[in-house]
Design the sequence.
């Protein structure tokens, strides 16, 4: 993941509600499986394993976020565990086919959460974070990000 992508994901996370956080994890998982596939194509075993390790980290975070007081959580748990096994199978067999299966599942989940996030009207999970305004300002064809609320009391509270 490039530095710019990390900054973009960090910005998204600070402004996201609960539904959007899950959506962001799905996006990150897709980025990491893509990186693993690219490393496999270049025959870089270490990069392949690193991409899978990071993708499994996203799945572990998704597993940790489940609320088992809802029946649907068990279905998600089984799905996440299946994807985790597929990633392990890809690593052991040094194959990309299981990665494609994971990407297919995550793609469908991401699309479903995209629709859910449109209905979720709750506010951001994090409060007291910098507000970022982006737009074309004071430069020819350059994107300038302006940060506000940069006081000493700024911090992340969940």
Sequence:
């Amino acid at each position: 993941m490039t530095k710019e992508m990390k900054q973009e994901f960090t910005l998204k996370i600070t402004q996201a509600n609960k539904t959007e956080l899950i959506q962001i994890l799905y996006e990150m998982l897709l980025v990491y499986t893509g990186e693993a596939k690219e490393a496999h194509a270049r025959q870089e075993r270490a990069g392949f394993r690193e991409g899978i390790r990071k993708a499994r980290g996203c799945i572990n975070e998704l597993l940790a976020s489940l609320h088992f007081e809802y029946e649907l959580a068990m279905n998600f748990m089984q799905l996440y565990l299946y994807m985790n096994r597929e990633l392990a199978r890809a690593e052991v067999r040094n194959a990309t086919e299981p990665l494609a299966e994971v990407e297919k599942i995550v793609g469908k989940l991401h699309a479903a959460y995209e629709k859910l996030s449109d209905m979720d009207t709750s506010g951001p999970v994090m409060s007291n974070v910098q507000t970022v305004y982006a737009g074309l300002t004071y430069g020819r064809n350059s994107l300038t990000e302006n940060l506000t609320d940069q006081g000493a009391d700024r911090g992340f509270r969940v």
Remarks:
- The two ends are 25 Å apart (CA to CA).
- The mean pLDDT is 83.
- Strands lie at 131-136, 143-148.
- The CA atoms of residues 2 and 8 lie 10 Å apart.
